[in-house]
Automatic annotation (TrEMBL):
One GO location term (cellular component): Cul4-RING E3 ubiquitin ligase complex
Name of the protein in question: DCA17 factor
Keyword Transmembrane helix tagged: yes
Source organism of the structure: Oceanodroma tethys (Wedge-rumped storm-petrel)
Gene: Dcaf17
Pfam families in alphabetical order: DCAF17 (PF15802)
Superkingdom as given in the UniProt entry: Eukaryota
Length: 539
């Protein structure tokens, strides 16, 4: 007979099991989740307002990353956390040769030993016009690392993540011969260069070229994402290849940053001027094809569970029609053709929900559909698309009446109907997901004449219920370009006006029980201007 357990042994076993699965009452992650749950409740309660605490304007693009606002081509960094603008650093104006082309924010990984104390703080990876890759301190702008990529043979322009915060890809602009060279029939076979790095510590994985002799003449773009090399073609074709298999098969020699090398008759140091990085992944034969699909404008997405993909049939008449198919056998899901049949200037858009639930978000001018994949009843091999919930724009005061009666009693019939995204009707412009608070955010806009009004709404991500609505005080012109960021207790609106004029409006959460509060009033109040670091801020 088995011996009976000691008193409390069941509780200990249960605790150890829960801890093995990540549940532990004293764990920092549990405390953090509880704090975020409390913050969500505070944000959504009726007495909480979002106040426009300050505004600034710029003649150059404005970027936002994790509580930091970057201006003047990343030469000025402002903290958005404080109620007043606090300049973290401001560098002298850079020359055209030092212009930054692209940037990525690099966060410290958890649970890893790093070689330098500076690696434990956030940093900014920037790419300059002269092919320098720099790692800057996010708080001071100090240069922590410098890597020279290549000489004039190619111009690197774009930064992206293969695996977020782990593997980074630097892509060149497409190589194009000068007109004089094309006239004398000089052939250019290399279309793009890709340099791939492991981050923190920053290490070189390899550089490869996308050659038309291998991939074909009609390649228009290329990317690396989640270990997949994605090649796009002019006729709408998208082909997927295993990037890890390519790097293992065609890697000629691995190199470490800062080490001396002798490569193709050149002697230098990896990542140093003037040699830069060797192109050490030479694809000499067409790699095995994982998957290919044809889609209008190369629009192609993979997601869901089990894996599915979304395409638009490759004909212009099908624009706005989306097919959701199984990645396993290309079978169209039941109800897998999604078409809102909207008549609008701007097309509707669709994408897999970023919350990793496998759901799909389909956004039209006045309707947001959240869809889910589920097994067809009595057929476990087929999936169907079902509606999880919808969010509908408020169009109670619709102006699209076909017949109107004037004050004199004359009946007037309209000869045309308004578009679905006519500015005079409330229209969805932005849909985003706040992962830490598990809230779905939407921006809806109504513009009558020159005066446009927008509001940011927070919805329950699980059921779509409206939890909070925040009016944006500044006028919203639908013809301008807009970005809205919702980052926990902060709302940021960046607007691009004509003639390269940019504005940034910062809203912060305040708790106030007053019914009538200036936070939500559209009435103009007297502005206060303040000058800090040579920059003017408006309160």
């Amino acid at each position: 007979r088995a011996a009976s357990r000691a008193p409390g042994a069941h509780s200990v076993c249960r605790l150890l099991t829960r801890r093995a699965h990540g549940f532990y009452a004293r764990d920092a992650g549990v405390a953090h989740r509880k704090n975020l749950g409390l913050l969500r409740k505070i944000i959504c309660q009726g007495s909480t307002k979002f106040k426009n605490v300050w505004t600034t304007h710029s003649a150059s693009p404005i970027a936002y990353e994790r509580g930091r606002i970057y201006l003047d081509n990343y030469q000025c960094c402002i903290s958005s956390i404080a109620q007043e603008p606090r300049i973290l650093y401001q560098k002298p104006k850079c020359s055209k040769s030092e212009k930054i082309e692209d940037a990525l924010l690099l966060e410290c990984p958890l649970g890893e030993m790093l070689p330098s104390p500076s690696d434990y703080k956030s940093s900014l990876i920037v790419l300059t016009v002269q092919n320098w890759l720099l790692r800057l301190s996010a708080d001071s702008g100090e240069i922590l690392e410098k890597i020279y990529l290549a000489g004039s043979c190619c111009k690197f322009r774009y930064l992206s993540w293969d695996t977020p915060q782990e593997v980074m890809v630097v892509k060149s602009a497409q190589n194009k011969l000068p007109a004089a060279a094309r006239q004398v029939s000089i052939q250019q076979s290399v279309l793009f260069y890709l340099a791939v790095f492991q981050v923190l510590p920053l290490s070189f994985i390899g550089m490869l070229e996308i050659n038309k002799k291998i991939f074909g003449n009609s390649v228009t773009d290329v990317a690396v994402s989640n270990g997949i090399l994605i090649v796009m073609y002019s006729m709408g074709l998208v082909r997927l290849y295993n990037f890890q298999a390519i790097s293992e098969q065609f890697m000629e020699q691995p190199f470490d940053l800062g080490c001396e090398f002798n490569w193709n008759g050149q002697v230098g140091v990896v990542g140093k001027y003037p040699f830069g990085l060797p192109c050490n992944i030479k694809i000499t034969d067409t790699p095995p094809l994982l998957f290919e699909a044809s889609s209008l404008e190369n629009a192609f997405q993979i997601g869901g569970y089990p894996w599915h993909y979304i395409i638009t049939p490759n004909k212009k008449k099908h624009k706005g029609v989306f097919h959701i198919c199984s990645l396993k056998d290309n079978a169209l899901a039941k109800n897998g053709i999604q078409d809102m049949q909207c008549c609008s200037l701007e097309p509707d858009w669709i994408y897999f929900h970023p919350d990793m639930s496998g759901r799909i978000i389909h956004v039209g001018p006045n309707l947001i559909k959240v869809l889910k994949l589920k097994e067809v009843k009595n057929n476990t091999d087929q999936m169907e698309i079902a509606e999880d919930f919808t969010i509908v724009a408020n169009r109670e005061n619709s102006v699209n009446n076909a017949v109107t009666v004037t004050a004199s009693g004359r009946v007037v019939k309209k000869r045309f109907n308004l578009l679905d995204d006519d500015p005079e009707q409330e229209t969805f412009k932005i849909v985003d997901y706040e992962d830490e608070l598990d809230l779905l955010s939407t921006v809806a806009v109504t513009q009558i004449g020159a005066d446009g009004r927008a509001h940011l709404d927070f919805h329950c991500n699980e059921h779509g219920i409206l939890l909070k609505s925040i009016p944006l005080l500044e006028s919203w012109d639908v013809t301008y370009s807009h970005e809205v960021y919702f980052d926990k207790d902060l709302v940021l609106h960046i607007e691009q006006k004509p003639n390269r004029r940019f504005s940034c409006y910062v809203y912060q959460m305040v708790c106030d029980t007053a019914k009538d509060d200036e936070c939500s009033s559209h009435e103009k109040t007297e502005s206060v201007f303040c000058k800090k670091g040579g920059r003017i801020f408006e309160y």
